[in-house]
Amino acid sequence: MSSKRIGLAITGASGSVYGLRVLEELLRAPGVEIHLTISAAARKVLAVEHGIGVDLERFDARALGVKPTKRLVYHHHEDVSAPPASGSFRLAALAIVPCSMGCAGRIAHGISGDLVERAADVMLKERRPLVLVPRETPLSAIHLENLAALARHGATVLPAAPGFYGKPESVEDLIDFIVARVLDHLDVPHQLGPRWGERKAGKGSEKPKKGRGT
């Protein structure tokens, strides 16, 4: 059975932990091929927020706390000739987690300065799922107008604003609330929860083990 290609981009907004957790869960999902891009600003945020040093020129997945695998394909953010830059490559979906407001603004106005923005532009023109997770507060009118434009053009704007109805007990629970919603919109099955109307799993229940970045 052929793999489902999912794109994941991590840009330079605070909240890089969301991108790391999405990556971990995508790697757990069977039959998913992940195409990863990390912006130059994201590299700086990863260092500040997690002490992670990522070499964008000689990428090693182990720097992100995950094992190298053929299912994880890395693309340099400046490589605008990489496969995700073409609609014929047929990514099933693309998530930008987190998505900086600068990145969102450029995508909203059709400006493709790097692979992240070009891949997002491709998803919009091909009418394929594009999920953006902005992490900024407060939002200016410019931010709101750009996000509204993206929503009108078919993107899913999924702010990093977790719900509390599941009675979260840790920061990790709050993070996973957003990660679960991202995976839902990528149509990738997961065991993160709980969902509305479902009981919260007890302490003895099985829950996916988290790696680095949580």
Comma- or semicolon-separated keywords:
214 residues, alpha/beta, Rossmann fold, 6 helices, globular
Question: Secondary-structure map with pairings?
Answer:
Layout (H helix, E strand, L loop, with lengths): L3 E7 L5 H13 L3 E7 L1 H11 L21 E3 L18 E7 L1 H8 L6 H11 L4 E5 L6 H12 L3 E2 L13 H15 L29
Quick one: CATH class? Alpha Beta
User: What is the helix tally?
Assistant: 6
How would a textbook summarize the main sheet?
6 strands, parallel
Distance between the termini: 32 Å
Number of domains: 1
What coarse outline follows from CA principal-axis ratios?
A: globular
Give the integer mean of the pLDDT values: 92
Structural class category: alpha/beta
Spatial strand order of the main sheet: 3-2-1-4-5-6
**Rg over CA atoms:** 16 Å
How many E-type strands?
6
- Measured as a percent range, the helix fraction is 25-40%
State the low-pLDDT regions, or none.
202-206
Strand percentage lies at 5-15%
The CATH homologous superfamily is named: Flavin prenyltransferase-like
